[in-house]
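Predict structure. Chain length: 286.
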Amino acid sequence: MSWWEAAILGLVQGLTEFLPISSSAHIRVIGPLLPHGGDPGAAFSAIIQLGTEAAVLLYFRHDIARIVAAWVRALLGRDGRDSASRWGAKNADARMAWWVILGSVPIVVIGVLFKDAIETSVRNLYITATVLAVFGIVLGWVDRVRPARRELDSLRAWDAVLLGFAQAAALVPGVSRSGGTITMARWLGLTRHAAARYSFLLAIPAVVGSALFELATQYSDLTAQGGPGIAATVIATAVAFGVGYAVIVWFLRMITTRSFMPFVVYRLVFAAVIVVLLGTGVVAAT
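Prediction complete.
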């Protein structure tokens, strides 16, 4: 993979990771269209997400520091020695830390149990096109019909579990990590801004953990003959970081006044494009 192909994939990753349009689907489709050709692979896709997650850590650094500090204080009994206080009953930031931990469990369990399928069969582009369209329609419907009255401090344990399973659905390219969690958050009554912020925070453990796991177990795929290579992976990750940060700023401002409907339309169009590419033989389904 050349440096400019890596830069393109990093650009695509940065542009799509935080929007409810599935970054993995875009990487899966655009990779074979580049001169290098072929699916860049699950390991490459996971590792370059470290760039976009670094953008999240930078943008939310003050929130993350406050949440972690509150969680440690509660855990140590500074808010009270009873179990309820340690679980954040007296501090919304401490509760948020627990909800992120709880919400991260489903994707870890499902990711480990179905690792082989996630890296092979579910990357079929017919599946990708289908879930892009179906989950896009669901997002548009939920955003239209559900009230938006709740903020993040109203989250409960059951909400965190449901949001965790919604995030886990994004192991299938086309669902979208942010799309799945935002859809579930809107169904639970969270405002668009609260839904997006929780989606970003919830993704941190899952994405960082997945990237480190792939780096440890699939390193040989990156350096194998025909693989993307270390240099290309680093370039793509760096580009994803810079572009991703700009997208976070734009997206959080945009959803304060706009609905998610433009992303629904985009998902449907993108799904149709994939079907056309498959039908004309431009890309292969697997």
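Summary: The chain has a mean pLDDT of 90.
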